[in-house]
């Protein structure tokens, strides 16, 4: 297997803020549990590779990654990284040298964190979780993301459930407090879960069951990535890479007209060992998997993707799912949704959606591509 020089920009096991620490499909980055995982690598101009989140927490003092980017005549690509959303956020501009654009994009991360964080007391999601039993009115942005999460909960018949917070708070994946809850604790938490008990009436949100809680982690980073792309384009940027700790979004193509290359990491292997490399233009690539965010009790591994029906991790033959699509918020939600649904149902769902492709990796390291993937996405190796 060819190895590439890599720059690790991933969510890590011991992250301690609510952002990027969600445990289940709905917690990808706003609590202490879930993981979406990718790793940025460089190959010639730019090479990206996926990773399920590593077990060590990225420190604010860690060296910032500096991608190797080929220069275009007249313009020197710039790249900056910052520790935000409890992960390393990296933005590379290929057709602009204005660093202020990246700085403003980082400010957008802060803005949305202050709206969508589950643990920041001033955030709308925190206030929602505290007050929605009596109804609570949220901003248009929060309503937009809640609506998207609700739709995916419906689409998956609850396999993706944005109200899973009471359960994932027990497991605490990715924190120093992660543990195997007792059967009684899990049974109790399950009584407070159910997207169908979440009422959305315009901007007014109501919980129709006591003890409910919202966690937008599995879709929030994708949502923010999309918003950053909109901002970059509004500033005249048409060639860029946005990496929100693993959610990779490519704006346009490279200045020379070539595609960006994205490597999919081989599960349970070194981060720079890829199992496939694809080329994309103006698309997003997001993965979910089980082999980085987990702990072991009595010889059994417990991973972060929890089943809202049983309260325990999903047990199927999958190790990861990678989604390629236009909107990162959709890739974010679909990667975990399809993992939860399993190989057969997950592939059927993706094949029912327009301009959406996926590759499923099973425990035997076999790659299962959805229909149309190879016809529309170039596989380099």
UniProtKB/TrEMBL annotation:
<dbReference type="InterPro" id="IPR024932">
    <property type="entry name" value="ApbE"/>
</dbReference>
<dbReference type="GO" id="GO:0046872">
    <property type="term" value="F:metal ion binding"/>
</dbReference>
<protein>
    <recommendedName>
        <fullName>FAD:protein FMN transferase</fullName>
        <ecNumber>2.7.1.180</ecNumber>
    </recommendedName>
</protein>
<keyword id="KW-0808">Transferase</keyword>
<feature type="region of interest" description="Disordered">
    <location>
        <begin position="55"/>
        <end position="75"/>
    </location>
</feature>
<keyword id="KW-0479">Metal-binding</keyword>
<dbReference type="Pfam" id="PF02424">
    <property type="entry name" value="ApbE"/>
</dbReference>
<keyword id="KW-0274">FAD</keyword>
<keyword id="KW-0449">Lipoprotein</keyword>
<dbReference type="GO" id="GO:0016740">
    <property type="term" value="F:transferase activity"/>
</dbReference>
<feature type="binding site">
    <location>
        <position position="218"/>
    </location>
    <ligand>
        <name>Mg(2+)</name>
    </ligand>
</feature>
<dbReference type="InterPro" id="IPR003374">
    <property type="entry name" value="ApbE-like_sf"/>
</dbReference>
<comment type="similarity">
    <text>Belongs to the ApbE family.</text>
</comment>
<feature type="binding site">
    <location>
        <position position="336"/>
    </location>
    <ligand>
        <name>Mg(2+)</name>
    </ligand>
</feature>
<keyword id="KW-0285">Flavoprotein</keyword>
<feature type="binding site">
    <location>
        <position position="332"/>
    </location>
    <ligand>
        <name>Mg(2+)</name>
    </ligand>
</feature>
<keyword id="KW-0460">Magnesium</keyword>
